[in-house]
Design goal:
alpha+beta, Tetrahydropterin Synthase, Chain A, 4-stranded antiparallel beta sheet, 5 helices, rod-shaped
């Protein structure tokens, strides 16, 4: 009777070890394998089932697809006028190893990090630019949802990208509309 329990325990342990050693990569995933919090192998991007050392190696899943970040806030211009900037940024995770080493957990840190870098770049570029160079003037007293000058957007993207590439984040596109009172 005791031998049945021993065999059952061995079979169950083998099953648990087998299940813990498998991990699945989907088409829209990138997986970083770590061992004792250090990156252990190349990033897995091909869909399939892979093996890892159970309980020692951990899997960190990151999406391959692009993401949309939206933000609206007031920014002072060179002429000390406040404008309301409504920004939409499309970004993706370009280097998951850099990202893991710098930010660890995707959901909270990436969004906060992107928001702080985009806002910093916006403030730096907008604060050094006249309102007439940011948007084209209108005869109305309130100008709403005007497209931001593409040259200004390019400078914002370039400034933000410098800080984002160091953590493996790539800016794909940036759009902004501006609202201000004349």
């Amino acid at each position: 009777m005791d031998s049945i329990y021993i065999i059952l325990a061995i079979v169950m342990s083998a099953f648990v070890l087998y299940q813990e050693s498998l991990y699945k990569v989907k088409n829209d995933d990138q997986v970083v394998i770590t061992q004792f919090s250090e990156v252990f192998s190349e990033v897995r991007t091909e869909a399939g089932v892979y093996f890892k050392i159970p309980f020692i190696q951990k899997t960190h899943y990151y999406p391959k697809n692009s993401h949309l970040y939206k933000n609206e806030h007031e920014v002072p211009t060179l002429s000390k006028k406040l404008i309301r900037l409504n920004t939409q940024v499309v970004w993706k995770l370009d280097d998951p190893v850099k990202f893991y080493n710098r930010l660890y957990y995707f959901d909270d840190n990436a969004k906060d990090f992107i928001q702080s870098r985009i806002r910093t770049a916006e403030r730096k570029i907008i604060a050094a630019t006249k309102i007439s160079d940011i948007v084209f003037k209108s005869n109305d007293t309130i100008t709403e949802n005007l497209e931001c000058n593409p040259e200004v957007l390019h400078r914002i993207k370039k400034e933000a990208q410098l800080n984002l590439l160091e953590v493996g984040i790539l800016l794909l596109n940036i759009k902004a509309t501006v609202t201000y009172q004349i």
